[in-house]
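testing teh design pipeline on a random one, pls ignore if ur not involved
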């Protein structure tokens, strides 16, 4: 009756809550919750606004200008009594108000400043695109790890059910005297080992689920401590499961990622383009500093209501035009040093860009090579799974007919589990390599 006692320790998981997870939803959730992606996207928008502001400096500016002034002492002009005597040259209060227009006749500094701002905005946009790709890749990797953890729980659960069934047969044989007591103990030991494996696999699944929830910003149900694969609903397993997790099958995800293996590495990736645009922004800033040494002309026009009109105490309209010039003569080397600073930053960023391009090419070649090797391996893994399953069936049939030992059955069962686990691990690794290729070659 021992196998009955073992079965009584198992609780059905059919009443547990079910959580269905899809890859597309994981990607959307990760993008919606990623602070890194949000920061990069907002930085790109801010840089675009800065570029627009820099462009406005090249166009005329119109403003309303006004001034109000009080002077305690008003100068007087001495006139003879025949001409009315002393006369004040104005009033204590003076004011001027009206629209003014200015246009900087640029000698290059503003244009290069605008170019630097535009390049910086392009760099931030590329960084946002790279952050989006990395966020999606991270979510995919977490999903594939979760998928693999689910598959391991499912495979160990199936093996455990097989071990329970075989243990029951052996126990019946022991009671009937056709099997040795040693076989009964070994069958129970195998069942205990599989139960322990299942418990550890469920703990690993719980960890993978927590990591997935963290990477995608999802919240988990309260009772998710030792979840089970949803395909195991209605079965009997060690311990009560508060949560059943369902993920997409490997076969359903693979077709969407397979085209990535046929795409070539593009000339410029977002991470490389961001550095390239940043280097160009520094070069433009250096040229802007160089042009600051040239004269700057500002053309102005103004129409205002002024008071008083000299010694005449009344308001009058005044139209004026102006042309001002600014030419730096001595600034203790400030412009030259700023130009050198930006030029050196440009060279330093270009060096980082070249390293990033080489790293991307290396990562692409490594991922493509690993993918090709895994595809070759999968045919061997599938063949190994079929052979291991057939060997396990034959070993148990031989044991039942008296032509084999229980150790042979146990070994065959373990090899069958290992073969299926190896196949599942290779599937997850293959999907991950495809995800890396897709991130690198995305159009």
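output:
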């Amino acid at each position: 009756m021992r196998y009955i006692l073992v079965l009584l320790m198992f609780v059905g998981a059919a009443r547990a809550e079910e959580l269905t997870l899809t890859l597309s939803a994981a990607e959307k959730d990760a993008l919606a919750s990623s602070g890194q992606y949000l920061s990069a996207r907002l930085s790109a928008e801010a840089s675009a606004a800065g570029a627009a502001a820099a462009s406005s400096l090249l166009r005329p500016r119109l403003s309303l200008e006004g001034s109000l002034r009080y002077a305690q002492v008003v100068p007087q002009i001495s006139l003879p009594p025949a001409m009315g005597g002393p006369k004040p040259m104005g009033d204590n209060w003076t004011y001027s108000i009206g629209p003014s227009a200015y246009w900087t006749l640029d000698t290059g500094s503003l244009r290069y400043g605008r170019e630097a701002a535009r390049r910086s905005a392009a760099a931030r946009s590329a960084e946002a695109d790279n952050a989006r790709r990395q966020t999606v890749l991270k979510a995919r990797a977490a999903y594939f790890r979760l998928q693999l953890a689910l598959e391991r729980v499912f495979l160990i659960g199936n093996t455990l059910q097989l071990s329970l069934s075989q243990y029951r047969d052996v126990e019946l044989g022991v009671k009937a005297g056709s099997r040795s007591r040693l076989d009964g103990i070994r069958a129970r030991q195998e069942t205990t080992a599989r139960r322990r494996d299942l418990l550890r696999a469920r703990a690993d699944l719980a960890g993978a689920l927590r990591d997935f929830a963290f990477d995608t910003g999802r919240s988990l149900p309260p009772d998710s401590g030792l979840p089970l694969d949803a395909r195991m609903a209605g079965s009997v397993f060690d311990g009560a499961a508060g949560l059943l997790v369902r993920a997409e099958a490997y076969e359903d995800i693979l077709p969407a990622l397979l085209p990535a293996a046929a795409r070539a590495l593009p000339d410029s990736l977002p991470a490389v383009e961001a550095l390239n645009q940043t280097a160009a922004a520094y070069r433009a800033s250096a040229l802007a500093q160089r042009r600051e040494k040239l004269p700057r002309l500002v053309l102005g026009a103004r129409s205002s209501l002024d008071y008083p009109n000299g010694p005449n105490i009344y308001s009058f309209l005044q139209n004026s035009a102006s042309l001002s010039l600014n030419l730096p003569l001595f600034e203790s080397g400030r412009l030259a040093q700023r130009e050198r600073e930006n030029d050196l930053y440009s060279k330093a960023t270009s060096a980082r860009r070249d390293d990033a391009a080489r790293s991307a090419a290396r990562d692409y070649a490594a991922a493509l090579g690993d993918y090709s090797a895994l595809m070759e391996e999968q045919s061997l893994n599938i063949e190994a799974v079929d052979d291991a399953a057939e060997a396990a069936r034959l070993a148990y049939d031989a044991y039942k007919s008296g032509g084999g030992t229980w150790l042979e059955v146990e070994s065959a069962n373990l090899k069958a589990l290992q073969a299926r686990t190896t196949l599942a691990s290779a599937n997850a690794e293959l999907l991950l390599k495809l995800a890396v290729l897709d991130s690198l070659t995305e159009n």
